[in-house]
C-alpha cells in the first residue's frame, strides 16, 4: 500500500469538488488543492494544498508548475512586528509522519503572470515537485475570493 | 509564553507605546470606492475598524477581509453602525474603481479607501501603520504592510488591534467591547 510507483487518483463517491480529490505519490498524500478567484489576469493567483507524509523519510516541496501561470512560485506569508511580507520559499519541508498545509496566512503557491483570470468554478492542474518523491499533478478548484477553504467531508483533519 | 511571546499577548493594544491617535485627531483625506471624499470627521460618533492592504495581495488581504466578513455576519445588525474600511497602501494601482470591484466580493459594509500617496502616508502615520514597496524582477512589485486590524471606540479612542495570527475566536468578543 505504500509503494505506488504512479500517482493514483481517488474520487469520492459524494459529488465532491476536485479539491476533495486525493492524489498519492510514494508516501505522500496530496489533497484539498484550491485557489481563489482573481479580478482579471493582472493580479497574482494563489494555490493552497495539504500534503501528508506517512513515510519515515523527510521530504520537501521544492517547486510548482502550472499552465495557468507563467511564473508560479512558493511563498511564505510572514508577519513580523505586525508587518506582513511574502518572501519566496526555496522549499516547504514535509517531515516524515507529518502533515503540511499551504494555507491562507502561511505557505502558499503564488501564481504570477496568470494566463487568464481565475473564475470561481474553474479548475486547473498544478504539478508539485518533491525533493525525494518526484512529481505529482493535482487538479485545483477555483473558489470565491472570499472562500476560506474547500468544503470536503473530510476537510480540516 | 515569555520574552518575544509577550508581544503576542492577546489583549495588549499594541506592540509598542506608539498608539494610533484618536480618530478625531487624524488629518488624512481619502476617497472611498464610490468616489466620495472621506475625512476622519465623517466617522465621529461611530465605532471604527480599519485594515491596511492592497488588492494585488493574494493571501493576507483576502483572508483578512473574509475573516472580517464572517465577524460582521456574526454580529449582524449590531455591526451596522461600525465603520469598516480597507485603506489601500498601493494607491498607484488601487483606484476607487479597482477597490469597488474588490470590496464587492466581501461584506457590503466594508468600504475601500485610497487617495494620493501623501494622504495614504498621512493615514498610515495617524494609525501608526507601516508599508513598504518591494520591487520584483520584471517591473512588478508587492507591498509589505501592517497586517493587524485596528479598532476604535465610538468616541474615536483607539481600542485594540486584532493581530493577523491571533486566534480568530477572540475577534468577535473584542469587537463587541468596541461597539459599546
Ligand atoms: Cu505570495
Automatic annotation (TrEMBL), chain A:
Positions in coiled-coil regions: none
InterPro entries tied to this protein: LpqE-like, Lxx211020-like, PCuAC_sf
Signal sequence residues: 1-19
Keywords: Signal
PROSITE patterns hit by this protein: PROKAR_LIPOPROTEIN
Stated name of the protein: Copper(I)-binding protein
Organism in which the protein naturally occurs: Gemmobacter nanjingensis
Amino acid at each position: 500500500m505504500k509503494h505506488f510507483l504512479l500517482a493514483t487518483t481517488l474520487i469520492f463517491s459524494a459529488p465532491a469538488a476536485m479539491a476533495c480529490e486525493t492524489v498519492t505519490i510514494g508516501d505522500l498524500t496530496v489533497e484539498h488543492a484550491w485557489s481563489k478567484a482573481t479580478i482579471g489576469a493582472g493580479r497574482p493567483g494563489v494555490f493552497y494544498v495539504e500534503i501528508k507524509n506517512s513515510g519515515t523519510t523527510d521530504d520537501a516541496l521544492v517547486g510548482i508548475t502550472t499552465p495557468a501561470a507563467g511564473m508560479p512560485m512558493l511563498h511564505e506569508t510572514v508577519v513580523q512586528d505586525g508587518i506582513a511580507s511574502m518572501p519566496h520559499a526555496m522549499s516547504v519541508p514535509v517531515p516524515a509522519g507529518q502533515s503540511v498545509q499551504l494555507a491562507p496566512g502561511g505557505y502558499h503557491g503564488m501564481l504570477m503572470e496568470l494566463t487568464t483570470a481565475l473564475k470561481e468554478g474553474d479548475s486547473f492542474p498544478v504539478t508539485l515537485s518533491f525533493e525525494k518523491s518526484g512529481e505529482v499533478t493535482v487538479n485545483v478548484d477555483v473558489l470565491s475570493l472570499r472562500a476560506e477553504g474547500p468544503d470536503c467531508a473530510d476537510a480540516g483533519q | 509564553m515569555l520574552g518575544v511571546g509577550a508581544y503576542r499577548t492577546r489583549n495588549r493594544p499594541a506592540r509598542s507605546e506608539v498608539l494610533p491617535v484618536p480618530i478625531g485627531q487624524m488629518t488624512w483625506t481619502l476617497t472611498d470606492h464610490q468616489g466620495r471624499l472621506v475625512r476622519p470627521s465623517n466617522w465621529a460618533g461611530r465605532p471604527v475598524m480599519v485594515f491596511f492592504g492592497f488588492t494585488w495581495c493574494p493571501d493576507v488581504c483576502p483572508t483578512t477581509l473574509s475573516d472580517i466578513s464572517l465577524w460582521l455576519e456574526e454580529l449582524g445588525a449590531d455591526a451596522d453602525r461600525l465603520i469598516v474600511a480597507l485603506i489601500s497602501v498601493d494607491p498607484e494601482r488601487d483606484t476607487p474603481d479597482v477597490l469597488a470591484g474588490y470590496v464587492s466580493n466581501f461584506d457590503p459594509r466594508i468600504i475601500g479607501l485610497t487617495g494620493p500617496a501623501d494622504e495614504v502616508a498621512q493615514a498610515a502615520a495617524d494609525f501608526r501603520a507601516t508599508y513598504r514597496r518591494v520591487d520584483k524582477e520584471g517591473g512588478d512589485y508587492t507591498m509589505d504592510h501592517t497586517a493587524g486590524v485596528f479598532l476604535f471606540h465610538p468616541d474615536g479612542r483607539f481600542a485594540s488591534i486584532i493581530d493577523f495570527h491571533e486566534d480568530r475566536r477572540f475577534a468577535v468578543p473584542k469587537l463587541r467591547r468596541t461597539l459599546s
